[in-house]
Task: structure prediction
Amino acid sequence: MEPQISDLTVMVVDDSVTNLKVAKNVLSDMVPVFTVPSATKMFQLLEGIEPALILLDIKMPEMSGLEAIRRLKDDPKYRDIPVIFLTSNKDAASELEGLNLGAVDYITKPFEPLLLKKRVEIHLMLHAQKETLERQKETLEGQKKALEKQKSKLREFNQNLWRMVEEETERVGRLQRTVLKTVVELVESRDDTTGGHITRTMKWLQFLLDGMEETGVYSEDLRNWNKDIIIQSSALHDVGKVSIDDAILKKPAKLTKEEFEAMKLHVDHGVNIIDKISKSLPGADATLLKHARILAHSHHEKWDGTGYPRQLKGKEIPLQGRLMAISDVFDALISKRPYKEPFTPEEAVKIIIDGSGTHFDPALVEVFKSVKDKFLKYGSEDIVLNTEEGLEIMDALQTQEAKEEEKLLELLADNDEAPGQKS
Result:
């Protein structure tokens, strides 16, 4: 509520009783008025009263108005009380001195009642407005502090929320990685003729995606993808093989026509398994499983429409499936099978290039050609590991590493004893 003038008080300080009576008679119908005969009495009265305005005579015995205003302005308790000087002098120098000391106005004596009342009313209105502004300022400061407190709490809440989201994301990620790892191990344990196939195809897919990025092929599609998620999702491309009969999956010879038709069903089985994972793990990454479903369903389609299961043709085949087709076939070519020896990486590269426009997307074959050196380099390493000789080499390396580790531990034990110490 804004202060009213009638709620304020005025103090008139003058050694003339007549002037005090006139001032009281003129002002008392507007505000309460305290009349004080000297500056000394004024300071005594100020101990218990805080006026909104002081009318102060300049020339008084004992303490002049100029000395009194100096004391008022020097005291933090009183310095903000506005002071109007009362004077019968026309001395401009005294008026200027008073204004310099902090007076807000001058009223000449003898008083002109209407002018006295109006001047006091104006200054009381200014005082009331100042108080209103001060209260509004205090209110705003309070609101500002409350707002800062709310903002602080909101920041803390957001931080806690982000931490919870990050923790939940990490938990889901761990669960997701565990599921992927378990499924991959399950698939590869069922099909022991293709050990390491999933890990290697992920690497080939990485090379192709890097090549797409470098050449700008299908750049718009790639911008909408998270490459890491695409690569992770490819681990499930053969998950449907867990539903294939062992007699077919582990047959150490080429499949019959009927057996091959049964093997082709692993594509549909894979889609069903991924759908079940999506339903049973509602917190799992929907994007990853979406890509995994596409990869599982379309990696055996061919550019000319002779693939399976839907005989899709050209760009009807999802881009993920067209990429996986190259990765999958390249790895199958360089891998040893019971019914065939591995092709060399160079032979496998030529077969992929020759399949452009029939088996494979011509644009992606161009990408493949741009990164074929990576396929040749890492394919040469992997082909060794897919042979009996490679396994023997790996065993020898592991034995050698174990011996070197044992020697290192002995050296460390010897160094623990400082020279001169007894063992």
In short: The two ends are 91 Å apart (CA to CA). The longest strand covers residues 53-57. The chain is about 65% helix and 5% strand.
